[in-house]
Design brief:
Number of strands: 5
Helix content: 40-55%
Order of helices and strands: EHHHEEHHHHHEEHH
Shape: flat
Largest sheet: 5 strands, mixed
Structural class: alpha+beta
Number of helices: 10
Strand content: 5-15%
Distance between the termini: 56 Å
Radius of gyration: 28 Å
Length: 270
């Protein structure tokens, strides 16, 4: 496992795992992809760590990871996270998607605007199942299939606002009148009148992707396949110079201020 906060992070809205997820990849890349897919979030998926476990050298693993990135399964970059104190810091991320994504999807992901996948929906939703089960627990609340289908969107809204199934069930079954003449109408009224408030909107993290070859950050549009234009054309852009240590910067600032003071005392232009 990587240090807390680092390592593999699974992208959202992935399709269920199947035996054919990576058959479009060459054998080596498919084997590595299957291994990465089964690692838990937070696992160290750096080349050095993978080389200790998989039967490939670091060079081969580096090439394979780049190919997985070009195929849309992997992106590497940084993410800006806000702390409870209000400050923010950058975290290195390696985002993994079992479902291959195109550049437009990854661009939307970096903006916090991920399009939903369109796998076949389940025959009955979580809300529909809860409503259908009410009649077994409380016979006076027995509903028809049509009633369940009509009320399910209201229950789904409760779930979207953070309510658990137990909270919904308690709101619908506690303090019932005797007798219940119209269970569907009663439940609709309760689902509407007792609807929890909207939770506060979480701050979307800011994400930056990096080139798989040179590591230079850039906008998603400038990194098709996760590689910058310079690396695709055969030359890598110069890396930015490393920042000077804070004591050196402070000492230099003191020198500049002292020189400016001497200029003022001498009456010469600063």
């Amino acid at each position: 496992m990587a240090n807390p906060g680092y390592g593999k992070r699974s992208a959202p809205d992935q399709r269920p795992r199947t035996a054919h997820d990576f058959t479009h990849l060459p054998p080596r890349e498919a084997a590595i992809a299957a291994y990465l897919d089964r690692l838990p979030d937070g696992a160290d998926i750096s080349v050095k760590t993978l080389a200790k476990t998989l039967p490939y050298g670091q060079c081969a693993l580096g090439t394979a990871l780049n190919r997985l990135q070009q195929a849309g399964h992997l992106r590497r970059g940084r993410e800006k996270l806000a702390a409870d104190s209000g400050s923010a810091h950058w975290i290195t991320r390696s985002w993994w998607s079992r479902t291959a994504r195109d550049d437009d999807w990854w661009a939307a992901f970096t903006r916090g605007d991920v399009p939903e996948d369109t796998p076949p929906p389940p025959t009955r939703s979580r809300a529909h199942i809860l409503l259908a089960a009410l009649g077994r627990e409380t016979p006076s609340l027995s509903l028809s299939a049509a009633d369940c289908a009509a009320l399910a969107p209201l229950v789904t809204e409760w779930f979207a606002r953070g309510a658990t199934e137990e909270v919904v069930r308690h709101a619908l079954t506690s303090g019932l009148p005797t007798p219940v003449h119209h269970p569907a109408a009663l439940l609709r009224r309760r689902l509407t009148d007792k609807l929890p408030p909207q939770p506060p909107t979480p701050q979307q993290p800011r994400r930056i992707l990096e080139c798989a070859d040179c590591g230079v950050p850039g906008r998603p549009e400038s990194l098709p396949g996760g590689v910058c234009g310079g690396c695709r054309d055969g030359y890598a852009p110069a890396r930015p110079a490393s920042l000077l240590p804070a004591p050196v910067i402070h000492a230099r600032a003191d020198e500049i201020r002292a020189a400016m003071s001497r200029k003022r005392e001498e009456g010469t232009p600063v």
